[in-house]
Structures are given as C-alpha cells and as structure tokens.
Design goal:
Layout lengths: L1 E10 L2 E6 L5 E5 L6 H13 L18 E10 L2 E10 L7 E5 L2 E3 L11 E4 L4 H5 L2 H15 L1 H25 L8 H38 L6 E6 L8 H11 L1 H7 L10 E6 L2 E2 H4 L2 H23 L4 E5 L7 H10 L5 E5 L12 E6 L2 E3 L1
Parallel strand pairs: 3-13, 3-14, 8-12, 12-13
Antiparallel strand pairs: 1-2, 1-4, 4-5, 5-6, 6-7, 9-10, 10-11, 14-15
Bound molecules: adenosine-5'-triphosphate (ATP) and magnesium ion.
Magnesium ion binds next to α1.
Length: 366
C-alpha cells in the first residue's frame, strides 16, 4: 500500500498540513526539534490508534488547541482506504473519534489492518536493552496489525488477568475464597491459548526473516542473528491445558504474592548474535542492525499475512549506521513506500530518495 495523502490539523507542531508523498522514499530533513518525528507519529496514530512514543493522547494536540485531527488515505491492492483519528483535550468529551472510510468506528480494533505501518524509531534500541514489556509490545503491535482477531484475543486475556489479580487482592483482604479462583483460571487459560499460538508462529517466522536481513545489512557471514520466544508456554503445544496445570501448581505462590505469576503476560524474546545474548555484549551498531532486521522482518510478515506491503517509517535510522550498512539498508527498502527522517542529507549517501522535504517548526517545504 502507499499513502496518497496525509492531512494534519492542529497535530503537535503543525497547524495545517497536506502531504502527497510519492510511492517510493520520501526524506524529511531538518534540525532537532523541527517536527520530523511528529509526521511519522501521525501516520502511526492512524494505523494503530495510538502514538508510538506516548500513551497520553493529549500530548499530540497542538498546544492551545482543543482538538487535533489526522487523516491518511492509502491506495491498497484492493482499493482505497481512508482512516481518520480525532483527539480531544476536554476531559468531558469522548477523547478519541475514529473514522474508517467515512464511517465512525467505535473500537480501536476496527482500525487494525486498514492502514498498516512498520515504524523504526531511536527508542527501539530499548527492544534490545530494555524490559520484557517492550518486546511483548513489539509482538503485540505486529500481530494486531495482522488482524483484529489478535487484538481482541489480547484484550480478553488482559481482562481475565485483571479480574484474577483483583480476586487475589480480595482474597488477601479476606473478602473472597481461594476456590473462587477456579472460574478465572479457566477464563485465563482459554484466553491465553490464541495469544500464545499467534506469538509462537510470529516469532518462528520472524526469526528466519530477520536473520536474512541481519546478514544482508550487517554484511558479515559469521554473525548469525536469532530470536527465540521465551516464557512458560513458549514451547507448549496445548497452551490452555499447560497453563491450567501451571496455575494449579502455583496457586499458593500466587496467593502469597497477590499476583498471577504464570502466563503470556510474562513472555519475553531472547535476541542472540552467534548464540550469545545480545544484551550482554552487542555494540550499539549491532543492536541497531538487529532492530532494523526485526523491523524489516515485520514488513515481510505483514506483507505475507495481508498480501499488501505496509508503510515503512524510519525515524533517525541512518545516523548510527556505518556507510556500508546504510547503503545496504537503503537497497532493501525498494518497493515499499518509506518515510525517512534525518538531520543531514549527507547521511543519505548510497540512497536515491524520490522526494526530499525540508522541515522547520510547523512548516514543510520542497
Ligand atoms: N502538542 C504540541 N504542540 C505544539 N508543539 C509541539 C507539541 N508536541 C511537540 N511539539 C513540538 O514539536 C517539536 C518536536 O518535534 P519532533 O519530535 O517531530 O522533532 P524532530 O524533528 O523529530 O527532532 P529530532 O531530530 O530531535 O528527533 C518540538 O519543537 C516541540 O516543541
Ligand atoms: Mg525526531
């Protein structure tokens, strides 16, 4: 798919913007704080209903405005799709309105799969170094964009988990009985199964795909990149049955710790280079290359699942790669509409963008 038009209204540093990027690569160049990432964030908002960098929607409303709006129109293999998101500052109003092809959508899940993107951002390095939560989010966003089914399955699981944890608290206060856990254990097991199965499939596919991208961009045959799904049910062929057994075995511990200690909410990914844990020894550039390989693997997986290439948003990706890696990366993104930001055009050596736009606070010029 590719963007035909992107409209912003009172979004971050922009009062009014209309962009019609070409099908290939568009480069946004500008100083730090010029508003480059804001543009990519706007696209991300239309794909997943949320920002890639903040959980607080209001931050995206231009200072002083009551509301902001973003609209993306894409050409897909199967037709044109238009997605719009409007956010409101006032607490008494509904905070988010979604529109898909002119019709109001009541749930964020409905957005999934209409406009899809893969975003690389500097914060992605946290995928390598940070807490497991970030790696789970990476998988969840990827799988949600593959189809709303996963998004809703995850919501069910999180709902059941919240209820079970609330019950553990009630039991600890003497307001409920441990036997009441049985109902929520069963709900949790049923809800966990589709989440675990989707993650198992995604990680094994992604490992193959990302390994090839790493070898290409890294340019060294002796560095084999791999990722492995880890967690209580990572290898399970029957996740519901196995979780049921685990919850029973750990019930006393759960009661003592007043939280659910087993399940996919504790999952993680292990990222290795030459079979060594990358967290412990990889260089900054190797970590960046690995994240890029994961993101390009994500592009492949989404393309395979949807029969459509997603949009590729590359925020500040070039600055920490050496010249060879930059050139090999830019050769990989052929055929995918890419929006790329940089602070200096000299970073682009080896690439031939289809459009270069200069960004200054609130303004975009050719
Ligand atoms: N809600 C908002 N209202 C008005 N301006 C905002 C809002 N949120 C952010 N900004 C402004 O947007 C700018 C940051 O934009 P952005 O993050 O896109 O910069 P950037 O060009 O990506 O910079 P860098 O190269 O440092 O990554 C800042 O100047 C900030 O003041
Ligand atoms: Mg930025």
């Amino acid at each position: 798919m590719y963007i035909q038009s992107l409209r912003l209204h009172d979004f971050r540093s922009y009062r009014q913007v209309l962009l019609t990027p070409p099908r290939g690569t568009t480069v946004f160049v500008g100083e730090n704080g010029a508003g480059k990432t804001n543009l990519l964030e706007a696209v991300h908002l239309c794909c997943l209903g949320r920002s890639h960098r903040t959980a607080n929607d209001k931050e995206m409303i231009r200072t002083g405005a009551d509301t902001c709006a973003v609209q993306v129109r894409v050409q897909r293999e199967d037709g044109v799709d238009t997605v719009g998101v409007r956010l409101f500052a006032a607490p008494e109003k509904k905070r988010k309105l979604l529109h898909i092809n002119g019709k109001a959508a009541s749930r964020t899940g409905e957005l999934m799969g209409h406009v899809t993107c893969v975003m690389f951002s500097p914060e992605d390095i946290e995928l390598m170094r940070g807490a497991p939560q970030g790696r789970r989010r990476f998988l969840d966003m990827l799988l949600s964009q593959c189809g709303a089914g996963y998004y809703y399955a995850l919501q069910s699981y999180n709902g059941a988990l919240k209820q079970r944890n609330a019950l553990l608290h009630a039991i600890s206060r003497g307001e409920a009985q441990p036997s009441q856990l049985d109902v929520w254990d069963e709900q949790l097991c049923q809800a966990a199964a589709p989440v675990v199965r989707a993650r198992q499939y995604a990680v094994s596919s992604l490992c193959q795909l990302a390994r090839e991208h790493y070898a290409h961009i890294g340019g060294r045959d002796n560095e084999v990149f791999a990722l492995r799904y880890t967690g209580h049910l990572a290898e399970s062929a029957e996740p519901a049955d196995d979780l049921r057994r685990l919850l029973q075995a750990r019930r006393q511990e759960d009661l003592r710790r007043i939280t659910t200690t087993a399940g996919p909410h504790r999952d993680d990914l292990l990222l290795t280079l030459g079979e060594q844990d990358m967290r412990a020894f990889a260089s900054q550039g190797q970590m960046r290359t690995a994240v890029l390989a994961l993101r390009l693997g994500e592009v492949d997986l989404l393309t395979r699942r949807q029969g459509e290439t997603p949009l590729l948003l590359l925020d500040d990706v070039l600055s920490e790669l050496d010249a060879g890696r930059r050139t090999r990366l830019l050769s990989r993104i052929h055929g995918i509409q890419t929006l790329l930001t940089c602070t200096d055009l000299s970073d682009l050596t080896g690439g031939q963008p289809d459009a270069v736009l200069h960004v200054k606070l609130g303004e975009i010029t050719e």
